[in-house]
Amino acid sequence: MSESPTTESGSNQAPLSPPVPTVVPAGLRLRPALGVWLRDLIVSLAISAFIIVFIYQPVKVEGTSMMPSLEDQERIFVNKFVYRLEPISRGDIVVFRYPRDPSKSYIKRVVGAEGDRIRIDGGQVYVNGEPLDEDYVPPAYADNRSYPETVVAPHCYFVLGDHRSMSNDSRDFGPVNQSYIYGKAVFGYWPMDKLGRVR
Question: Do the Cβ atoms of 171 and 108 come closer than 8 Å?
Answer without folding.
Answer: no
